[in-house]
Specification:
Elements lengths: L5 E4 L3 H12 L4 E4 L3 H9 L6 E4 L2 H6 L6 E4 L5 H10 L8 E4 L5 H12 L4 E8 L1 H7 L2 E5 L2 H4 L3 H7 L2 E2 L2 E2 L9 H29 L5 H11 L7 H9 L13 H4 L9 H12 L4 H14 L1 H8 L13 H34 L5 H7 L10 H9 L11 H24 L4 H14 L5 H12 L21
Parallel strand pairs: 1-2, 1-4, 2-3, 4-5, 5-6
Antiparallel strand pairs: 6-7, 8-9
The chain binds 6-phosphogluconic acid.
The site of 6-phosphogluconic acid has 12 residues, from helix 9 and helix 13.
């Protein structure tokens, strides 16, 4: 009997939690996963009796109301293609597959095209918020055919997080728009996480703050201009004790300093390089994960470059306040870079994105949610600005907070403490706001060694000169 509103393939934590969220909101969901344990867990802990699990894909498909809507929450990459391949013979024209994983946008475009002649619809939808978000309200970034979106818009609005009473979901644009926006969300996430890690290093190494003091500082920051999910969880992290050790050690101190990644940050940087949009904070955050992964090389090299004692800050509170300004400044710059990339991708890839909408749906549920997104939404409200840097309110904020970041970077560099993402954010700002850059010299060098020609400030055209001095 075809009685279920939706199907979910992939009943791991994210898939299961999303099913429960849909179930809470009155939608009946059939689940499928080849792993019996996952199927049992889904049914055993289901909050209502509108959820069930099937062990055969054909029974699962037959249990769905037509035209069918099937959500996928399976690992990005080959598995998605495999699941589509298995589903294809079982589905009919107008059935809709929604990939809710972190798929690469290029794969999403390919899948839409590959399914086009079957009449099966395919949408790429970004879902952010981790386990908690999936269960109680994620931020949802849908993209794809606008003519089929009406089949899921009410369900998505019901299960999404709410910010100021508005659901954190909005149809974003054509083709792979949803997965592209989610990818950039993750790029921003990488940037913000790296910046917070650098602020922690400065406070720890120069400020000499204990973990208990870190907790206080980040908690306080979370009540002010830095209010955000990532600052909130950072404050929490400093309170957790290591249960394994049987000692009173703080857990954060026994975590290895090697950060892993699944690839969305790299994809963001690659796409930005191709579109020629500078996003140096995000690039640096990706690169910093590589530095962190070179742990044994770092330990070996460290012996040759031992540094002396770091001179502690003269005034601890002053340092804390400056780091707060530095982080705020760099956070604004990180969003700026992500949004400029989105605007350019929208133009080149034909997504039709509305940046204000994106800022609004990121205000709740997702990993990069922050109070500042409200400012961004306002900056783009019914305006077609090309960069957040031109928004009047943002100009004032960046001016206010730039002395802090400059001081913190100087202090850190003098003490030999790496602050690559903070430095990337001020360099981006200084490069952007300078009407003149020394690229005239690069043009002269190119023309010198390769006759690549150059343009002049005082007349139109391209020119070539003989640059080498006669000897
Ligand atoms: C989210 C997260 C989620 C995932 C990251 C982790 O929005 O809910 O971004 O998608 O936790 O992709 O990425 P890395 O493993 O690459 O750090």
């Amino acid at each position: 009997m075809a009685t279920y509103d939706y199907g979910m393939i992939g009943l791991g934590t994210m898939g299961r939690n999303l099913v429960y969220n849909m179930s809470d909101n009155g939608f009946s969901v059939a689940g499928y996963d080849p792993d019996a344990k996952q199927r049992d867990t889904l049914v055993k802990n289901a909050p209502h009796d509108n959820v069930s699990a099937f062990d055969m894909q054909k029974d699962f498909v037959a249990a769905l109301k037509a035209p069918r809507t099937i959500l996928l929450l399976v690992p990005a990459g080959k598995v998605v293609d495999q699941v589509i391949g298995e589903l294809k013979p079982l589905l009919s024209k107008d059935d809709l597959i929604i990939d809710c994983g972190n798929s690469h946008y290029i794969d999403t475009d390919r899948r839409i095209e590959e399914l086009a002649n079957t009449g099966i619809q395919f949408m790429g939808v970004g879902v952010s918020g981790g386990e908690e978000g999936a269960r109680f309200g994620p931020s949802i970034m849908p993209g794809g055919n606008p003519d089929v979106y009406h089949r899921v818009d009410k369900m998505f609005a019901a299960i999404a997080a709410k910010a100021d009473g508005e659901p954190c979901v909005k149809y974003l644009g054509n083709k792979s728009a949803g997965h592209y926006v989610k990818m950039v969300h993750n790029g921003i996430e990488y940037g913000l996480m790296q910046l917070i890690a650098e602020s922690y290093n400065v406070l720890k190494t120069i400020g000499g703050l204990s973990n208990a003091e870190m907790h206080e500082v980040y908690s306080k920051w979370n009540e002010g201009k830095l209010k955000s999910f990532l600052i909130e969880i950072t404050a929490d992290i400093f309170t957790v004790k290591d249960s394994d050790a049987g000692t009173q050690k703080d857990l954060v101190d026994v975590v290895m300093d090697t950060a892993h990644q699944k690839g969305t940050g790299i994809w963001t940087s690659k796409s930005a390089m191709e579109l020629q949009i500078p996003i140096p904070v995000i690039d640096t955050a990706v690169t910093s994960r590589y530095y962190s992964a070179m742990r044994s090389a770092r330990l070996a090299i460290a012996k040759s470059y031992e540094q002396g004692e770091v001179k502690p800050a003269d005034n601890k509170q002053e340092l804390i306040d400056k780091v707060e300004d530095a982080l705020y400044f760099a956070m604004i710059i990180t969003y700026t870079q992500g949004l400029e990339l989105l605007a350019e991708a929208s133009k080149k890839q034909g997504y039709g994105l509305n940046i204000e909408d994106i800022a609004r749906i990121w205000r709740g549920g997702c990993i990069i949610r922050s109070a500042f997104l409200e400012n961004i939404a306002r900056a783009y409200e019914s305006k077609d600005i090309t960069t957040l840097l031109s928004d009047k309110a943002t100009v004032a904020l960046l001016k206010d907070n730039s002395p802090g970041i400059r001081d913190v970077i100087c202090h850190a560099v003098n003490a030999g403490i790496p602050v690559p993402a903070l430095s990337a954010s001020i360099s981006y700002f200084d490069s952007y706001r300078n009407g003149w850059l020394p690229a005239n010299l690069i043009q002269a060098q190119r023309d010198y060694f390769g006759a690549h020609t150059y343009e002049r400030l005082d007349k139109e055209g391209t020119f070539h000169s003989i640059w080498h001095s006669k000897k």
